[in-house]
Structure prediction request, 71 residues.
Amino acid sequence: MTGGGRVRVRSALYMPMLAVIRCNPVLRRFYQRLLDNGKAKMTALVAAMRKLLTILNAMLKNNQVWNPKIA
Prediction:
């Protein structure tokens, strides 16, 4: 089920996340792994959104820039 959580955040991240899974190799691998394990596309997309939010929150908390080796 992908209907839970904050609707405004999910709506705001939907289109940017489509671009991220095309251009960001770290999150693309994560998304593809979920699809390969049989998850629905929307479920995998929402999981990737959550992972991106977790990464961004950690970056803000630690005052760091994007580092693909950490993610």
